[in-house]
Amino acid sequence: MQGSQSRLNFLPEKHTDFIFTSLAEEFGFVGAASLLVLYMLILGFCLHSALTNRDRFASLTTIGIAGTFFLYMAINMGMVMGLLPAKGSPLPLVSYGGTAIMIVLISFGIVQSAHVHRPR
What is the domain partition of the chain in residue ranges? Predict the structure, then answer.
């Protein structure tokens, strides 16, 4: 890591809470925009799966999981940009979060199960 903010320890928790700052510093605008596009693709898949599913419970569960994922993402990025106070929420699927990464992976497993087992 060659960025000045990460290398000189200006970031408090560069491997967990402020990983987006380190990633944007290392890979620039293209890397940060690519991560945002990947997040939007995940959210788009969740919403498409929820809207095309005929089972109401699976649809509402998928929308709830997509909303939770969006809030994880929005709170972390707002915290990194200084729009929100530093709270300690990890960036999903990127930062070292422990319990948070397990919750996100289990949630995406539920979304995939709802997508695969939807009534035709």
Answer: 4-116
